[in-house]
Amino acid sequence: MASKFINISLKVWRQKNANAKGAIETYKLDNVSTDSSFLEMMDQLNEQLINERKEPVAFDHDCREGICGSCSMYINGRAHGPETGTTTCQLHMRSFNDGDTVYVEPWRAKAFPVIKDLVVDRSAFDRIQQAGGFVSVNTSGRTMDANATPIPKDDADKAFEAAACIGCGACVATCKNSSAMLFVGAKVSQYALLPQGKVEAKDRVLNMVRQMDEEGFGNCTNTGACEVECPKGISLENIARMNREFLKAALSAE
Amino acid sequence: MSKSAILSSSIAKKYWMAITGLFLCLFLVGHLLGNLQLIFKTGEEGRRAFNEYAYFMTHNIFIKVLSYATYISILFHSADGLMLAIQNKKARPVNYVYNNPSANSSAASRKMAVLGSAILIFIVLHMANFWWKMKYSSDPMPIHTYVVSSTDQTGQPKTDTLYYTHTPSLQPIPTNPMIVVKNGTELYFKDVNVKVGDAYKDLHKIVMAFFGKSVNGAPTNEYALFAVILYVLAMAVLSFHLIHGFSSAFQTLGLNHKKYTPSIQVFGKIFAIIVPAGFAIIPVLIFLSR
């Protein structure tokens, strides 16, 4: 496909700091290559702003290959933009047309406060992960032969699919309740399915859910929006599994 | 830990929503089957069947237990739902300037709280119209009476209006000044104060009159058309609530399985259409046959 250049109008959320009141600012950006990624387009915008002696737009980015989960942008009303199964860095400008107006906003959740412009504090996810605790079964040093612990292929695959979660927060951003159930469901599932993870399974799910509630995430209405927007295709099955694990643990834990 | 978890955590609240919601789905089926008697049996036979059914539903101990479970479920489902909705609003203090939620979720799933609130308002009105009158209203309920035609000793045709009774009485009890009604349905001989029988409350007549159909020339609700339209609208709202709610309850309870979930989703959609449609057809048919 031959590359083209398009002119777009950007409506970007600008907010000086966590306490400032933010607002949408409009910028015209010309000659955007349709081969550039959305983040490269944002770089181009920032170069333009710097040349104009204006403050560039702060946004999170790191790997730019779809695995770090940093590039949190709510683009035209959807987490990571109009394509499914992509992060913002994997979204290309060929998904837009010449003359388009593109809204770019930060994730919106009480548990993800805006630090500046498009950058939000997602450390709530880290605290949930930490609340889950360690796996006490040794997986390094004097370990057993891997094949000595039989694990059905299906379980291994499901655990692996759950572990594909990159903690980007798109599920929270897209959920009408800012619920973190898909994230926590994935983190609970990746251990709950494997024998090594079963040792601490009860405490893990109770502690992670408690931390999730304390962080101020909303509740799950099963709209299924998270599953659609998740760049890694994490399934709603993981939320159901967390709900099962939670009930088991809540009824039997001492 | 586990004690508070089962009562107050986000997942536990959803569990209670799912359990009460599914119980209310069962209630809907029972209620619908009872109501369908209004259109499947006609005339005096239908009236008797329905009033006997109404008597059974207000006097059977097992039904009483179920009815209290239903009241509690409705109250709990509403209060829990309200609490969840408030928490969910708080979880996003600043909204998106531009949002496109229809790209990834159904409108019904996003509007459960609004749909549920509308249903709660309907339930209050519905209970005020029928349940309250049947059980508590200080206005005496109409009593079920029926007319028989016969000939007197001289061969002249005559008609008698009799009470329809459920305690065995030696002979039909006519409506005349000798018989007085006490405590709503108890029939007494006026002069000697002896109980002669128990009549049925005529809920059938109230329902028919409410939706515009006159039975034996009784006056009807002048806003019957309005009542029918409102009832049908309420059932449409219920349908949308169930279209998401039925299968959602299974997901919340952790019952998500590749083999069964597709069937549950299909069944949920069918349930969400058939049951409200079944309710809605009743007042429409009553109104059309007035």
Overview of the molecule:
The complex is a heterodimer of chains A (254) and B (290). With 254 residues, chain A is of the alpha+beta class. In chain A, 35% of the residues lie in helices and 14% in strands. Chain A folds into 2 domains: 5-115, Beta-grasp domain (Ubiquitin-like (UB roll), Roll), CATH 3.10.20; 122-252, Fumarate Reductase Iron-sulfur Protein, Chain B, domain 2 (Orthogonal Bundle), CATH 1.10.1060.10. Chain A is built from 9 helices and 7 strands, in the order ββαβββββαααααααα. In chain A, a hairpin with an 8-residue loop joins strand 1 (5-14) and strand 2 (23-33). In chain A, helix 3 packs antiparallel against helix 5 (181-192). The model of chain A has no long low-confidence stretch (mean pLDDT 95). Chain B has 2 domains: 2-95 and 105-139 and 220-288; 145-199, no CATH class. Chain B has helices spanning 2-8, 10-35, 37-40, 43-59, 61-90, 107-110, 112-135, 203-210, 224-252, 261-288; strands at residues 145-151, 157-163, 179-182, 186-189, 195-198.
Distance between the termini of chain A: 62 Å
Major sheet strand order of chain B: 3-4-5
**Widest sheet of chain A: strand order?**
2-1-5-3-4
Rg of chain B is 24 Å
Specify the oligomeric state. heterodimer
- Fraction of residues in β-strands of chain B: 5-15%
CATH superfamily of the largest domain in chain A, please?
A: Alpha-helical ferredoxin
Helix-strand sequence of chain B: HHHHHHHEEEEEHHH
Biggest interface reads: A-B, 53 and 41 residues
Please describe the biggest sheet of chain B, giving its number of strands, its sense, and whether it closes into a barrel: 3 strands, antiparallel
CATH class of the largest domain in chain A: Mainly Alpha
Task: Describe the SSE topology.
The complex is a heterodimer of chains A (254) and B (290).
Chain A: E1 5-14, E2 23-33, H1 38-51, E3 74-75, E4 78-79, E5 101-105, E6 114-116, E7 119-120, H2 123-131, H3 153-163, H4 170-174, H5 181-192, H6 195-198, H7 201-214, H8 225-229, H9 237-252
Parallel strand pairs in A: 1-5
Antiparallel strand pairs in A: 1-2, 3-4, 3-5, 6-7
Helix pairs in contact in A: 2-7, 3-5, 5-7, 5-9, 7-9
Chain B: H1 2-8, H2 10-35, H3 37-40, H4 43-59, H5 61-90, H6 107-110, H7 112-135, E1 145-151, E2 157-163, E3 179-182, E4 186-189, E5 195-198, H8 203-210, H9 224-252, H10 261-288
Antiparallel strand pairs in B: 1-2, 3-4, 4-5
